[in-house]
Amino acid sequence: MADAKHTALTLMLAVSSAASAEQTPSNETAEITGNEKRIEIREATLSEDEETMGTIRVIGMADGILFKPSIKGLEPGMHGFHVHENASCDEDRSVEDYDAQPEPVAAGDAGSHLDPGFKENHGGPYGDGHLGDLPNLFVNEKGVAEHPVFAPRLRMRDLENRSLVIHANPDNYSDEPEPNGGSGPRVACGVILSTTGS
Q1: Comparing 167 with 197, which gets the higher pLDDT?
Q2: What is the structure's pLDDT at 79?
Q3: Residue 23 domain-assigned?
Q4: pLDDT at site 111
Q5: 58: closest CA among 81, 80, 88?
Q6: Cβ of 166: how many Cβ atoms within 10 Å?
Q7: Signal peptide location in the record (predicted)?
Q8: pLDDT higher at 157 or 102
Q9: If you placed Cys at 57, which of 68, 91, 170, 179 could pair as Cys (CB 3.0 to 4.6 Å)?
Q10: Closest CA relative to residue 97, chosen from 171, 46, 160
Q11: Which of 38, 21, 76 is nearest to 187 (CA)?
């Protein structure tokens, strides 16, 4: 009888251990699988006096990228936030987003939203449009952005030689009534030259 109880107890422990082992991978999405990069964010202006506004930590996860801002000096509210195609925050006089205005555009040399698949539509972070469409950044009443946003379609390799741009207005993730979600002028920008290292 003692042998039967011992055998039953051994089987129960084995099944319990197996069940625990099967549940472990469910935490996989919380683990960092890529690199982490800290991007300096500067004010987008037409002068050379661009103030540093803070940083955004870019963290590669198992199922996307987490952007963790620590930025001061923005207007309170929601702000459009995108990965742009070029690794530059310089001004430009001919930007597709702004119908090639003759006036210089702050951070215009960052180019358009990252769109390697040539979707040519603005679909938001969970849609099938520009790969560079990110969730809006929330800025509190003190002008501070510190709430992280998550981009499930992006991987660290997608960010090589790109830029991060913060816009003046929220993004409605549509091309109506205005192109690119009506997010408006570029107010802050940071260059990503490499996604290796910190």
Answers
A1: 167
A2: 97
A3: no
A4: 87
A5: 81
A6: 28
A7: 1-21
A8: 157
A9: 68
A10: 171
A11: 76
Q: Look up residue 8 and give its two tokens.
A: 């039953």
CA nearest 122: which of 168, 65, 172? 172
Phi then psi for 148, rounded to 5 degrees?
-70, 155
Task: Please check whether residue 85 lies inside any domain of the structure.
Answer: yes
Q: Which are the contacts of 111, defined by CB distance < 8 A and separation ≥ 6?
A: 84, 85, 86, 88, 95, 96
Is the predicted pLDDT of residue 9 greater than 50, yes or no? Answer: no
Q: Which amino acid is at 131?
A: L
**Is the pLDDT reported for residue 122 higher than 90?**
no
**Confidence band, pLDDT 50/70/90 cuts, at residue 93:** low
Sequence letter at residue 31:
E
- Residue 119's pLDDT is what? 59
**Helix (H) or strand (E) run with residue 36 in it:** strand 32-43
Count of C-beta atoms within a 10 Å radius of residue 34: 17
The answer to whether residue 1 is domain-embedded is no
Number of domains in the chain: 1
Mean pLDDT of 122-145: 85
For residue 36, what are the domain limits? Answer: 28-192
Quick one: DSSP state of residue 153? Answer: T
Length of the chain: 198
CATH number, position 100: 2.60.40.200
